[in-house]
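dude i think i finally got it to work??
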Amino acid sequence: MPDLTEDYWALRKDAGAVWLPRDFLQVAGPDAVTFLQGQLSQDVEGLGVGTSAWTFLLQPQGKVDALLRVTRAAGDRFVLDTDAGWGERAVGRLNRFKLRIKCDVEPLAWRCLAVRGPGAHEVATGFAPADWPGLPGVDLCGGEPTVPPDLRVCDLQAYEAVRVEAGVPVMGREIDEKTIPAETGVVDRAVSFTKGCYTGQELVARIDSRGGNVPRHLRGIVVGTNVLPPAGAGVEVDGKEVGTVTSVAESLERRAPVALAYVRRTVEPPADVTLTWEGGSAPARVEELPLVS
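look at this
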């Protein structure tokens, strides 16, 4: 049985490793740079070999197909990775737009060992920096990554707790095909506003020109009781629903259940709210992210 308390404190105060489910794909060929430059929100041409950046793969209307990390493995070869279960969608989306382009898009049989904690960069140097707000990180990725010596391997449940505290969105929970990039809180690190055109750019640029105003924002929630609300719980102010919970975890640092939720922009944090679900409710507070820094 995992010791979730020890796992949590390793990730929060020291360093711990987690086998993280992620999907990988490779884009390679003489036209790989120009193809990805026209498909991803990040400046792919500006990436040096061995460097990485977060990026959106968008629908033509500007909503999200996938949140990816793009790594330049060689001059004309790139590795893209995303949350587990979304790689096939990314491959299909890229191939639909690959017309008369000399490059191949195919799945890659890799694994990801996520290292998180204040000591992450001291114990692991790897495939890509994966720093979160308030928490350093490194991801070791490849055919069979090796756990660094004496590094604690932690349970995914503990990883989820620090992810929610940091306010890091994942596909299938905080992000899906209906999500607008500006809602997620990661546009500043996943979008280049100085590169040329790419699929879905119009909506991103229009919202940015209006100050980033969108109907809702991803916020942190700290629950006022020891009740763990379910994902999908409503967020209410004076009996009116103003948001929906997307992810829930137990924060030992905050000594309370915590959650991520999309909340209407009219609710300015900090703000007292009520979480409601079938058969239960709990007082809570909307806060800025990260919840632990």
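The radius of gyration is 19 Å.
im so relieved honestly
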